[in-house]
Amino acid sequence: MTDELDFYAVDPATSARERRDIRALLGRCGLDYEEHIQVFVVCRDAGRLVACAGLESNIVKCCAIDPDLRGGSLSLTLLSEVVHLAYERGHSHLFLYTRPENVSFFQGCGFYALAEVPGYVTLMENTPVGIRAYCDRLRAQRPRGLRPDARIGGVVINANPFTLGHQYLVKLAAAQCDWLHLFVVSEDVSFVSYRDRFALVEQGVRGIERLTLHHGSQYMVSRATFPDYFFKEKGVVGDCCTAIDLLLFRNHIAPALGITHRFVGTEPFCETTRKYNADMKFWLQGAGSTAPAVTVIEEARTRSGGTPISASEVRRLLRSRDLDRIRALVPAPTFELLREKYLSKILPFAPDPLGHGGEPDAPARRAVAAGI
Amino acid sequence: MKIVKEALAGTLESSDLLVKVSPGSGTGLEVVISSEVMQQFGLQIDRVVRDTLARLGVTAGLVVVEDKGALDCAIQARVQTAVMRGAEAQTIDWSALS
């Protein structure tokens, strides 16, 4: 190694040469090139690309160092550079995925483990107080005066848009619990904006007693908790991406609020959903965690004219301008908002059923697949 | 000085430290130190960080330090820089730390 190490940031979309060199380095390190990375920090040693770390918004990805240059201080410089770059781009709360055996290395770089699928992957964040402060805020919202053996429910919905099906699930869950905590996915990558989704849920659950409505967070069905890539073993991807999200819920969020039950709607047609619900039972109820188990309760979806109500069906009808049929599937405020604001926004022949403008939409897509 | 935004100073390299400041969620001052030499120097690092913050008039916010064995003068300088960035300070009181 010479002393002429040169660090700089590159936009992979604008340089074929940088892209090719990054791809080659990742290949040597057993990692795949990620298409959605907006910027890379790279390091060249006398012209040769020897290290790289990418950022997709606030997620550090594709972090690699040439095997010949490991064991020195290059890694710490690389991580310093990428953290500074992220701050400059307005991201101070960072996440990264790594194999469990590399956790101690990233701990030396200011990252802290959040959840681990043993043998496969660990999610880390760059603050020692992130999840703790979040859970403290949740704990402060615990209702007072509940019995120690109270049945406390949790529901997570994306509500894109809020339908009578969501309303039915929430009412049914609330009726079975001493208290219900309802979360709205806050990642703003869905067709209906977060602000509108939250407002519609707020109106739609008004009057339901013993219920707390929460804003979602980075720790729940977000780009960070639902990664769409890990390693070359593609088969692992599908299993791990739900596991991290579910383990965060079981190990941190549920204990903070005392949640004992998680409610989810079934989707009788979709294989992905069955898989997600099975994963939910495995990770929330099974032996994969030492935190108390959270019982999963699947509720059959409510129907309208024989067909289960789903938000994706509503978006499909909106695309075909079928307002009459939408009216039967959603509460009145949702209907008004769709007609006033979103009817003109949806593309009639959008290839992506979420009608999303090209941006990667993995969390929302999985949230929909998961029946939330 | 009042921390109004997230800011960063320093590096993770040996004998340096990375300081992150943010307005924090509570009302008080929270200092979290992580160091390679926590066992021997953890208390001293904490004292230097808190002294520096006090001299800069910082009474609220979250300050996270990832230390790689930095000397006290480096700790002071990095904390000062992070605070000035986080406070969006336009005029710098150079004598505050002298």
TrEMBL record, chain A:
<dbReference type="GO" id="GO:0008771">
    <property type="term" value="F:[citrate (pro-3S)-lyase] ligase activity"/>
</dbReference>
<keyword id="KW-0067">ATP-binding</keyword>
<feature type="domain" description="N-acetyltransferase">
    <location>
        <begin position="1"/>
        <end position="129"/>
    </location>
</feature>
<dbReference type="Pfam" id="PF08218">
    <property type="entry name" value="Citrate_ly_lig"/>
</dbReference>
<dbReference type="InterPro" id="IPR005216">
    <property type="entry name" value="Citrate_lyase_ligase"/>
</dbReference>
<protein>
    <recommendedName>
        <fullName>[Citrate [pro-3S]-lyase] ligase</fullName>
        <ecNumber>6.2.1.22</ecNumber>
    </recommendedName>
</protein>
<keyword id="KW-0547">Nucleotide-binding</keyword>
<dbReference type="InterPro" id="IPR016181">
    <property type="entry name" value="Acyl_CoA_acyltransferase"/>
</dbReference>
<dbReference type="InterPro" id="IPR013166">
    <property type="entry name" value="Citrate_lyase_ligase_C"/>
</dbReference>
<keyword id="KW-0436">Ligase</keyword>
<dbReference type="InterPro" id="IPR014729">
    <property type="entry name" value="Rossmann-like_a/b/a_fold"/>
</dbReference>
<dbReference type="InterPro" id="IPR004821">
    <property type="entry name" value="Cyt_trans-like"/>
</dbReference>
<dbReference type="Pfam" id="PF00583">
    <property type="entry name" value="Acetyltransf_1"/>
</dbReference>
<dbReference type="InterPro" id="IPR000182">
    <property type="entry name" value="GNAT_dom"/>
</dbReference>
<comment type="function">
    <text>Acetylation of prosthetic group (2-(5''-phosphoribosyl)-3'-dephosphocoenzyme-A) of the gamma subunit of citrate lyase.</text>
</comment>
From TrEMBL, chain B:
<dbReference type="GO" id="GO:0008815">
    <property type="term" value="F:citrate (pro-3S)-lyase activity"/>
</dbReference>
<comment type="similarity">
    <text>Belongs to the CitD family.</text>
</comment>
<dbReference type="InterPro" id="IPR006495">
    <property type="entry name" value="CitD"/>
</dbReference>
<comment type="function">
    <text>Covalent carrier of the coenzyme of citrate lyase.</text>
</comment>
<keyword id="KW-0963">Cytoplasm</keyword>
<comment type="subunit">
    <text>Oligomer with a subunit composition of (alpha,beta,gamma)6.</text>
</comment>
<feature type="modified residue" description="O-(phosphoribosyl dephospho-coenzyme A)serine">
    <location>
        <position position="14"/>
    </location>
</feature>
<keyword id="KW-0597">Phosphoprotein</keyword>
<keyword id="KW-0456">Lyase</keyword>
<dbReference type="InterPro" id="IPR023439">
    <property type="entry name" value="Mal_deCO2ase/Cit_lyase_ACP"/>
</dbReference>
<dbReference type="Pfam" id="PF06857">
    <property type="entry name" value="ACP"/>
</dbReference>
<protein>
    <recommendedName>
        <fullName>Citrate lyase acyl carrier protein</fullName>
    </recommendedName>
</protein>
